[in-house]
Amino acid sequence: MLQILPCSKIVLKKVKTFGLGKKFNKQLKIFIKDPRYPSLHTELLEPKEYGIYSFRIDQKYRALFVFRDDKTTIEIINITSHY
Q: Could you give the CA distance from residue 12 to residue 9 in angstroms, rounded to a whole number?
């Protein structure tokens, strides 16, 4: 099972600013159980050598994350608009 590092203040502020609290928590629970769950649309972003992934919070917003050294821990580094 994946472990998620505590979100930074910047990430938490964006979740609050964009009104994504419930959606973010729901998608995070799904992500912890199965990172490849179809509705998450988890993908490795370009350029691939940076190792930055995203998963869907809703149609408009994505959570960007990176795997840490042990590959079982992730850190959510940003919340971005998909458009």
A: 5
